[in-house]
Amino acid sequence: MRQDMEILTKEHGINSFKMFMAYKDVFMLRDDELIDVFKTCKALGAIAQVHAENGDVIHENQKKILSMGITGPEGHMYSRTEEVEAEATHRAIVLANQVNCPLYIVHVMSKSAAKIIARKREEGCVVFGEPIAAGLGTDGTHYFNKCWQHAAAHVLSPPLRPDPSTPGYLMDMLASGELQLTGTDNCTFNANQKAMGANDFTKIPNGVNGVEDRMSVVWEKGVMTGKLDPCKFVAVTSTNAAKIFNIYPQKGRIQVGSDADIVIWDPNQTRIISAKTHHHNVDFNIFEGMECHGVPMYVISQGRIVVEEGELHVSQGVGRFIATPVYSPYVYACINERDQVRQPHRVQREAFKESTNNMVTDGIEPEFQKDTCCVLSQQSEFHSRPPTRSGARNLQDSTFSISGAQIDDEDSPRSGIRVHNPPGGRSTGLW
Ligand SMILES: NC(=O)NCCC(=O)O
Ligand SMILES: [Zn+2]
């Protein structure tokens, strides 16, 4: 695998690798495997991407939900809760940070996962979060739709969230910079293909549309709501991605020398999204009926007009692959510095010399020293402090040990523990 990644980065212009924490027994990587790939990405200067959901938990939940007789698309959502996404998001960030590898979380779908990304960035982790058009434009209430096809058409992973305030929240996070860019994870299936899971939600192919409508959805939900200004709109739809994937300013900027890929956006026009008029080769559009302000009047690609007033003028094969070089400075600048300054360092000490008196008895009256020695050796398995002057166990000590033993196991029965020297003199009193 490492060799393949090396060839891809060095000879084919690939600088990012997506890993799955979901899809148990298919794509799912375990922690040690993730660490391995993160280390390889780091060594190659690539960006590690993860699909963050806990595949083991999903597997358990799926069995449970199916056994309850829930076979429809709502089961997809119930089996992949926010917590399942948030746990994996947190774990991925921790693992990547441990090996100082930059991380990109694809399709951030929940408030919980977004909050974790924001918190870990605040703590200094190099992690980027990408919400997608689906999660910004619609929500998981569609899984409760009585029409199976409608509900199944919204199945993607992680799923849309039933909390209808989620899209607005994710947009707020983009506006504040806590999430950085928008994608789509465009991956469409028509009704017949989705029907593979007609009797079992776990078999519904995952994925929805997004690529054609992403700009419109982000403008409508971001700019028209006053959350994003037009410059931030450009940043989260274009420039930030170009920077992260190391193709800026060839892409993501309009200037002499950059590629002539330009969208002329008319903010005053409106259009209504529909499967009847979209250009996807699929029979459903998850944004069906959404009225969007802001319409691309012209799209220029490689200097040629490819969209003009709603009409598409493209020919197959004119697209070209853009190589993405490793060591993106926007991603790796801090990483390289951290490699230098965050090294653990060894403390220089004198060699250990065995002491002739290995009991610490300072401050304990001589008459109690014998008892004390006995107690200390009994305590060796525990965090030990000497007994108090009265001889009682020091209450600052932990009485917990992994073995389950208690510090006072030998004084039985437990309800009648003898105190050698309680305040006020020796007695056989109980405490
Ligand atoms: N988002 C989605 O369901 N896409 C299909 C493949 C994947 O899970 O990434
Ligand atoms: Zn994915």
TrEMBL record:
The record's keywords, sorted A to Z, are: Hydrolase, Metal-binding
| Cofactor requirement | Zn(2+)
- Report the enzyme's class at the first EC level: hydrolase
Alphabetical list of Gene3D superfamilies matching this protein: Metal-dependent hydrolases
What is the E.C. number?
3.5.2.2
Domain Amidohydrolase-related as annotated: residue spans: 22-306
Question: Which parts of this chain are annotated as the region Disordered?
Answer: 404-431
The keyword Flavoprotein appears for this protein: no
Catalytic activity reported: 5,6-dihydrouracil + H2O = 3-(carbamoylamino)propanoate + H(+)
Q: Which family does it belong to?
A: Belongs to the metallo-dependent hydrolases superfamily. Hydantoinase/dihydropyrimidinase family.
State what protein this is by name: dihydropyrimidinase
